[in-house]
User: What shape does this take?
Amino acid sequence: MRVLVTGAAGFIGSHMVDRLLAAGNSVIGFDNLSTGQIRFLQAALANSKFVLHEGELLDRPTLTQAMQGIDLVVHLAANADVRFGTQHPRKDLDQNAIATWNVLETMREQGCRRIAFSSTGSIYGEPEVFPTPETCPFPIQTSLYGASKLAAEGLIQAYCEGFGMQACIFRFVSILGERYSHGHVFDFWQQLSAHPGHLRVLGDGHQKKSYLYVQDCIDAILLALDRIDNNRNGKNVNIFNLGTDEYCEVNDSIGWICDYLGLHPEITYSGGIRGWVGDSPFILLDCSKMRSLGWRPKLSIREAVLATIKYISSHFEENHADR
Amino acid sequence: MRVLVTGAAGFIGSHMVDRLLAAGNSVIGFDNLSTGQIRFLQAALANSKFVLHEGELLDRPTLTQAMQGIDLVVHLAANADVRFGTQHPRKDLDQNAIATWNVLETMREQGCRRIAFSSTGSIYGEPEVFPTPETCPFPIQTSLYGASKLAAEGLIQAYCEGFGMQACIFRFVSILGERYSHGHVFDFWQQLSAHPGHLRVLGDGHQKKSYLYVQDCIDAILLALDRIDNNRNGKNVNIFNLGTDEYCEVNDSIGWICDYLGLHPEITYSGGIRGWVGDSPFILLDCSKMRSLGWRPKLSIREAVLATIKYISSHFEENHADR
Assistant: This one.
């Protein structure tokens, strides 16, 4: 199969590239290298079945070149940030919604019918049902990031109905693991590198969060794509929550990180049940639909946090820290 | 109050302008006159409290000029077409989603905090719950129109959360009444004007649809805006379905129209439970939330259809018909 992976040099994208190549596929990577790292593709670039296109999804001609002969698009490129959305209110619309429309329209023009898409549990806003199923009550958006992913989902669904495409949409919790480069584990590590005796925490520390290990995430995507491709009567639109069946408090995660680093910092909290505007005080997704395909995560949240802090500690210089 | 009405020259927009002026407000109209009709604003233009800006919502500088000193935006401008979405797949994204972002961002820049928005029951796709409440299970989009309105809703909600705005979002059924200029009543009238003995119907004629009379729609919007403005603890995001508590089949509507015109055409059906891709076979919204504010529609669906065919018959020349 010939697969286009957008966001190929990113945290999740580069793992996806590696796994698709390992399974014998031809992989076309697409990335603007704004946050992606070419070093994540070191192994892939040595493989003759991999080609990287450096470009913007908002640049249709470049995208059209990359879309030649593609059987499946794994669309992972995104502005994957909730917290700073209000500082650049157009970015999510451009990078997530309009970019996805460009992917869809280019697929349509080039005759590619299948797409996998990384959506987010953030589109549930602040749900009232826990664990939150894919069919929970119609949510209200609380972040520009969530709104832009919702817009992208809607466009994908409408293209499936209007143009006979087939989509697997995955609503992720936060993903952890090797090549992780932004999020709470990174923030805490940066702070503790700069001043090991003190940690500032946004919110009250009791925010309840779910996380998933990156290889468990990839396992789920590849399994769902395989099952739905082999089911010729499959629905056009297939939506799966992806997460663990557990959650932790931010304070739990801090404890695991500090234990690993052998630190006992004084902790101060900014207070409030949300860390920032659009933060969700409680994320726990009902992943029984994905589990019904036979998938289950191999790592617990604690194990995923530890894999992440281990990776960060060994791959980043302490002088990257924000002093 | 100084109110900006987008889509001011349109079917619903021009009625909104008239009603806002009648209530003593200053009204700034904004319209690109692509489908709006300047003649709908004849009375308004004679009122010193009305100003019309002709411009595109995608043109931020023009929009910024119109947004000066505005207390409330009633955002009705849209590409309000489901059926032809697949013929121009970018139009809904531009006219509904990106245009709404421009409205929101210009509001933010100019310090306007309140917005009323015309969303649509089409964002429920093909729901499984009837009548369909605002909190029905998270729907899947079946049209580019619905997807673009969903995107606009999400952006509005995120701006409310992120920037302290307040929104009333109205999910309309199809609206009927004076100044109506596209939709099934118009299509049928055009056909019967061209060939009174024959009517072609898309679908099997059993599609179940809800309609609302335009003045009932305006009543609801103005009432909700009044109640929520007077409730200082009101939510940031307030969503209301707007429709009648009844539905009719397309065949019922045909019967009322033919009775009015005194015609007995031979009817042929294209067949299928949907008239076109993205058509919803059954629309019936649960409007109890809006009714709880004291609103109820004054006209039944049959009365609204008759008001519409009466208006069309007396305002359009038969040679407009599609022969």
About this structure: Residues 177-209+246-285+300-320 of chain B form a domain with the UDP-galactose 4-epimerase; domain 1 fold (CATH 3.90.25.10). Residues 319-323 of chain B have pLDDT under 50 and may be disordered. Chain B has two domains: 2-175+212-242, 177-209+246-285+300-320. DSSP finds ten helices and 13 strands in chain B.
